[in-house]
């Protein structure tokens, strides 16, 4: 059987204010801050992970908040829209919630589904869709009860600079199935029940610019280390020049840039975010890999304190 990814593992983006980021994704969207750590390659910057109650693969959106960083421009070579999945029957709750918080949005029809499209405080393009698939979140926070909570990713819209080549990678390497085409988008599906619906522009999109309000990379799921090593081998055989396997503490990762200029990562499902914190304490303490522990005091001093809090609109 051909190797196939189950879908999206996580998506990582650039933003500015760490507190604004927490307020939007935990306070407004109701996701759980499951890990508060640092960018291992730039330890003066947070790396914040939000997801369901444990940040399961297929639910985790992660951020590098850089308050003095430049603003980005959404365009080719990026994920254009990140799609969140909600339970069937929760659509009106989320539309009302957007209105309650004064967030501008639009309704969009695509492949016989209705989406709510909006942006976060940095201009990151997001959308919400309801579907039957995927396990329900058990997390509730602020004004978002568990039965209306985001389940995880529904998928994403990829903005490719070379869409025919990007689609070839999705089909031939990642094992997704082409299922339709409509209004300039081609739809692919993975076999998993979260993060499994990927739309790609049929015509090239001009290059974007990285920075706040844009996606840094999209990560795909590998079952385990053995599966991960095979992905690395196959990516290399496909001429995509994957990196060495990198230990990211909560998963192992490889990276490569596909021909449409989007940065792809493949990440292992295990070990997960409970590796170094118990369930009840997830996201509360700054967690550092052991090689940064000697610098903890210096690192903590350089980071702006953040608080997960119920927002005024929900009080």
Written overview of the protein:
With 315 residues, the protein is α+β, with helices and mostly antiparallel strands. It has a single domain, classed as 2,3-Dihydroxybiphenyl 1,2-Dioxygenase, domain 1, CATH 3.10.180.10. Helices cover 17% and strands 33% of the residues. It is built from five helices and 16 strands. The strands form two sheets. The protein has an eight-stranded mixed beta sheet. A hairpin with an 8-residue loop joins strand 3 (42-51) and strand 4. The longest helix has 13 residues, at 225-237. The chain is globular, with a radius of gyration of 18 Å.
- CATH fold category name: 2,3-Dihydroxybiphenyl 1,2-Dioxygenase, domain 1
Q: What would you report as the Rg, rounded to the nearest angstrom?
A: 18 Å
- Considering the protein shown, what is the CATH homologous superfamily? 2,3-Dihydroxybiphenyl 1,2-Dioxygenase, domain 1
Mean pLDDT across every amino acid position: 97
Overall, the morphology is: globular
- The number of helices is 5
Q: Which architecture name does CATH use?
A: Roll
Multimeric state: single chain
Low-confidence stretches: none
The tally of strands reads 16
């Amino acid at each position: 059987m051909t190797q196939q990814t189950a879908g999206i593992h996580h998506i990582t983006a650039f933003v500015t204010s760490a507190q604004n980021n927490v307020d939007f994704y935990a306070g407004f969207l109701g996701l759980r801050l499951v890990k508060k750590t640092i960018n291992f390659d730039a330890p003066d910057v947070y790396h914040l992970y939000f997801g369901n109650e444990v940040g399961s693969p297929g639910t985790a959106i992660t951020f590098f908040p850089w308050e003095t960083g430049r603003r980005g421009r959404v365009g080719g070579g990026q994920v254009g829209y990140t799609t969140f999945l909600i339970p069937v029957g929760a659509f009106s709750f989320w539309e009302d919630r957007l209105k309650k918080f004064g967030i501008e949005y639009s309704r969009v029809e695509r492949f016989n589904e209705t989406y709510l499209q909006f942006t976060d405080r940095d201009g990151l393009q997001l959308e919400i869709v309801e579907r039957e698939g995927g396990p329900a979140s058990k997390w509730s926070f602020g004004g978002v009860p568990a039965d209306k909570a985001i389940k995880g990713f529904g998928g994403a819209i990829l903005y490719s600079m070379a869409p025919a080549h990007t689609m070839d990678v999705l089909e031939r390497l990642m094992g997704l199935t082409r299922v339709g085409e409509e209004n300039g988008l081609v739809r692919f599906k993975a076999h998993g029940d979260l993060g499994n619906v990927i739309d790609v522009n049929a015509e090239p999109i001009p290059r974007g610019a990285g920075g706040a309000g844009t996606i840094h990379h999209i990560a795909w799921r590998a079952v385990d280390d053995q599966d991960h090593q095979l992905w690395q081998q196959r990516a290399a055989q496909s001429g995509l020049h994957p990196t060495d396997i990198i230990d990211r503490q909560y998963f192992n990762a490889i990276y490569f840039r596909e021909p449409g200029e989007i940065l792809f990562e493949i990440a292992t499902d295990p070990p997960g975010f409970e590796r170094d914190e118990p369930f009840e304490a997830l996201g509360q303490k700054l967690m550092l890999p052991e090689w940064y522990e000697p610098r903890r005091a210096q690192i903590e001093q350089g980071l702006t304190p953040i608080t997960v809090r119920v927002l005024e609109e929900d009080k």
